[in-house]
Amino acid sequence: MAIYLTKESKVLVQGMTGGEGMKHTRRMLAAGTDVVGGVNPRKAGHSVDFDDRAVPVFGSVREGIEATGADVSVVFVPPAFAKAAVVEAADAGIGLAVVITEGIPVHDSVAFTTYARAKGTRIVGPNCPGLITPGQSNAGIIPADITKPGRIGLVSKSGTLTYQLMYELRDIGFSTCVGIGGDPVVGTTHIDCLAAFQDDPDTELIVLIGEIGGDAEERAAAYVRDHVTKPVIGYIAGFTAPEGKTMGHAGAIVSGSSGTAQAKKEALEAAGVQVGGTPTETARLVLARLEAERDVTHS
User: Fold this and answer.
1) 19 is in an annotated binding site
2) In this structure, are residues 210 and 220 in contact, taking their beta carbons and an 8 Å threshold?
3) pLDDT value of residue 214
4) pLDDT per residue over 158-187, tens digit each?
5) What is the distance between the terminal CA atoms of the chain, rounded to a whole angstrom?
6) Which residue of 102, 167, 221, 296 has the fewest CB atoms within a 10 Å radius of its CB?
7) How far apart are alpha carbons 81 and 105 in whole angstroms?
8) Which interval of the chain is the signal sequence (predicted)?
């Protein structure tokens, strides 16, 4: 099992013929993703050769869906065109749009996430690494060769920390890893993923990675307290970040007492979430908790 993305997912790549789109389409195909087409109105009717596979290019998302039955789109388009790309995908009825593009104006993100939600399209991102169900499908830029299938679910604001925890826990493996993005407005939240992992019978434990800025982690903590029965292990990036300075992500800014790493850590711990002081310590907490859970099961 998995959340949002499986081996049955059929993927279109909006912006496939650009430099980033080409590079990561090749990596997605190598990971076993069923990439069924690209979208570029100027190159409709052509195809692109990726090693041993020719991927057709369609003039629109709707054409791609009609020809292939695609249900996922990965968006590799410049920031100025991202809103139009997502609106086009939502209008065409795509089920999941993974928006990799960074630097999208916040008002555009507000507009297209709201629009997509009304159309029934789930957005992952923007400014995210995408998501991967190891051994099944990879939609985005997450390295596919650093872990294996397993029973840990991972939701993270940070791409780099997503990769690190995947690698640290590679011997255990993951059901699905979702990089939700670090912008102030994102389409899929920690809470959305927590709910999905809670309902996924093959996810045994959930890892939640947050960072300074906003109150998403505090809200996630409240959700864990009230709705999640599976063990959750957390990590918060940014304990040494100076107040008032944006750190890496557009949403990672501390203002006064709001959005600090310490406040987030305390909220999560109050909800019963163990929080690691470093990514490596977080991985150790995961291993210890899995061992404890299995000891209880076998006793």
Assistant:
1) yes
2) yes
3) 87
4) 999 999 999 999 999 999 999 999 999 999
5) 27
6) 296
7) 11
8) none
Compute the distance between CA of residue 148 and CA of residue 210 in angstroms, rounded to an integer: 23
Work out whether strand 96-99 and strand 174-179 pair parallel, antiparallel, or are unpaired: unpaired
What is the spatial distance between Cα 296 and Cα 233, in angstroms, rounded to a whole number?
18
Residues annotated as catalytic (active site), given as ranges: 249
What domains are defined for the chain?
10-124 (3.40.50.720), 146-298 (3.40.50.261)
Of the candidates 182, 167, 143, the one whose C-alpha atom is nearest the C-alpha of residue 280 is 167
Phi, psi of 221, rounded to the nearest 5 degrees: -60, -45
Beta strand 149-156 with 205-211 is: parallel
Is residue 4 a known part of a binding site?
Answer: no
For 99-128, letters b (16+ CB in 10 Å) and e give bbbbebeeebbeebbebbeeeebbbbbbbb
229 is annotated as contributing to ligand binding: no
Q: Is residue 157 marked as binding?
A: no
Q: Which residues contact 79 (CB under 8 A, 6 or more apart)?
A: 101, 102, 103, 104, 105, 108
Output phi, psi for 163, to 5 deg.
-65, -40
The CA distance from 228 to 282, in Å, is: 19
Residue 298: predicted pLDDT: 66
- Ranges of residues in the chain whose predicted pLDDT is under 50: none
Given this model, what pLDDT does residue 3 score?
A: 98
- Residue 172 phi, psi (nearest 5): -95, -50
Q: How many CA atoms lie within 13 A of 206 on its CB side?
A: 30
